[in-house]
Design a protein that fits this description.
- This protein is an alpha/beta fold.
- It has two domains: 2-158, Leucine Aminopeptidase, subunit E, domain 1; 166-489, Zn peptidases (Aminopeptidase, 3-Layer(aba) Sandwich), CATH 3.40.630.
- It has helices at residues 27-34, 40-49, 85-99, 120-130, 164-181, 189-203, 212-217, 221-227, 283-298, 344-356, 371-377, 389-402, 435-443, 480-489; strands spanning 2-5, 17-23, 59-63, 71-78, 105-109, 149-153, 206-210, 235-242, 249-261, 303-314, 326-328, 334-336, 362-367, 382-386, 406-408, 426-427, 452-457, 463-464, 474-475.
- The protein is elongated, with a radius of gyration of 24 Å.
- The relative contact order is 0.12.
- The model has no long low-confidence stretch (mean pLDDT 96).
- The structure holds ligand BES, manganese (II) ion (MN) and zinc ion.
- Manganese (II) ion (MN) binds next to loops.
- Ligand BES is lined by residues 261, 274, 281, 339, 341-344, 368-372, 374, 429, 435, 459.
């Protein structure tokens, strides 16, 4: 999709469909001020007849079959100075979805100067991401969204504006969505490693793929225990971005990469277990690879960023790990497996140790880690845990800037008690209550405590059952936009 800025008088604009945002006040005056090539009186009377008052969330569609302009979509912005980003974003997304199949060239006209904290770039991101569709696995696979070009109207300040970065970020989000939505018979650990190699090639990053033998040599007993029950070989993925100037900060991003989670011998049973959805248990690694793709294209200065994924499947066969096993992670700590379905934290244990050994300033991990997080925060908020308040605040700020929901959760030290084992250094699961907190406390055992660390549980946010703001139903690509924003803010 192409974005551009239309700077000539608005009555000379020649597109097919137009989206217009209007405040909750005198409709006629606002339309007249825009000076479009339409009959403002007629349109106003039509709007009033349909009881359009510019309230937020209101959308009306008008067909104009007698001119080049086929349709005008008008949506309410609500009261001036009381713009709510979420509802603005939702309206633009809903309008975009309505025009994406019909028109070739569209425009969007907003009172940009009066929308604080909302840029052209945000609008472009919303438009592109809201009309994304994934037809790779159905008979429509050759169909493309027909909306190819969007022009921004009503820009008074004519500085050079580039859309390249926003396109790079959107490509990263779309890539993450495709990885998450890909079925587990297609997106295997091997395929994930191929995708990483491909990113490395396209964007000139360094890549290392460790096979099972190399992981054994690094004593990754926790990760390999999870992988044992699958016929598919685990693949440990490590991508490196390094800017070619002085490095100010070294960062490691770690993603949970279970290409399928059956639960193991603590098998996911019953309708509520969602075993059929467990292809998305690699949502954390998709966010990490999507970020790698965007960062590879944007190439920020002064940074060294490591992208780390211990990918495998959690399956059952004669060699699968048992409930009751005691295993040893690569940092030497022993773990009693009291539940094979708490596998994500075991793979992350060795991935975090590996990241820690690189001596980064900051480690951030993302994981579809616990059902408990979904119970606590639902589908609009990811849970955030951190050993450093500055890092937590920076991540919350980045998330809110891009409109991804995130909530700061406590690392309640007293709950460590719940992970005590009679036989090993710890168990892999604590009691039911506070399950997403004990999961975070477990992770904290596997890296150098001087490193700033944050853990983001995206079990609820990586998939949406219905259209939600700029996310079409399905994989959301959650995390890419927050991570890229956080990296750019460093
Ligand atoms: N991948 C799941 C978590 C999950 C559940 C993500 C539902 C998305 C939706 C994870 O591996 C898991 O099974 N966690 C267990 C932990 C429990 C055994 C302590 C859970 O949440 O039930
Ligand atoms: Mn599990
Ligand atoms: Zn899992």
């Amino acid at each position: 999709m192409q974005f551009s800025i239309f700077q000539n008088p608005l009555n000379t604009w020649q597109g097919n469909s137009l989206i217009i945002g209007m405040f909750e006040e005198d409709i006629f005056q606002q339309l007249e001020k825009y000076n479009l090539n339409i009959d403002v009186k007629l349109l106003t009377s039509k709007l009033l007849k349909k009881d359009f008052k510019g309230k937020k969330g209101q959308i009306l569609n008008f067909e104009f079959l007698d001119s080049h302009l086929n349709s005008v979509l008008i949506f309410g912005l609500g009261k001036r100075n009381k713009i709510v980003y979420e509802s603005l974003s939702k309206s633009i997304a809903d309008c975009s979805r309505r025009i994406c199949d019909v028109e070739e060239k569209s425009g969007i006209l907003l009172p940009w100067d009066e929308l604080e904290n909302f840029s052209l770039h945000s609008a472009a991101e919303i438009i592109r991401l809201s009309i994304f569709r994934d037809n790779r696995f159905n008979h429509k696979k050759d169909e493309k969204v027909s909306l190819k070009e969007v022009e921004f109207l009503g820009i008074t300040d004519s500085k050079e504006i580039s859309f390249k970065e926003i396109q790079d970020i959107c490509a990263g989000v779309e890539f993450a969505r495709e990885l998450v939505a890909a079925p587990p018979n297609i997106l295997t650990p091997l395929e994930m490693s191929r995708q990483a190699i491909n990113i490395a090639k396209n964007y000139d990053l360094e890549v290392k793929i460790l096979d099972k033998k190399e992981c054994e040599d690094l004593s990754m007993g926790a990760y390999l225990a999870v992988a044992k029950g699958s016929d598919l070989e685990p693949k440990f993925i490590h991508l490196i971005y390094k800017s070619n100037d002085d490095i100010r900060k070294k960062i490691a991003l770690v993603g949970k990469g279970l290409t399928f989670d059956s639960g193991g011998y603590n098998l996911k049973v019953g309708a509520g277990s969602q075993i059929d959805m467990m292809k998305y248990d690699m949502g954390g690694s998709a966010a990490v690879l999507g970020t790698a793709k965007a960062i590879g294209a944007i190439k920020p200065k002064g940074l060294e960023i490591h992208f780390i994924i211990a990918s495998c499947e959690n399956m059952i066969n004669g060699s699968a790990f048992h409930p009751g096993d005691v295993i040893t992670a690569s940092n030497g700590k022993t773990i009693e497996i009291n539940n094979t379905d708490a596998e994500g934290r075991l793979t992350l244990a060795d991935a975090l140790t590996y990241a820690s050994n690189l001596n980064p300033d900051t480690i951030i991990d993302l994981a579809t880690l616990t059902g408990a997080c979904v119970i606590a925060l639902g589908g609009d908020l990811a849970g955030l845990w951190s050993n450093n308040n500055q890092l937590a605040n920076d991540l919350l700020k980045a998330a809110s800037e891009v409109g991804e929901g995130m909530w700061h959760m406590p690392l309640q030290k007293s709950y460590k008690e719940g992970l005590k084992s009679h036989i090993a250094d710890m168990k892999n699961t604590g009691p039911r209550g506070g399950g997403s907190i004990t999961a975070a406390l477990f992770l904290e055992e596997f890296f150098n405590e001087n490193i700033n660390w944050a853990h983001i549980d995206i079990a609820g946010t990586c998939w949406a059952d219905k259209n939600k703001g700029l996310n079409p139903s399905g994989a959301t690509g959650y995390g890419v936009r927050t991570l890229v924003k956080w990296i750019k803010n460093i």
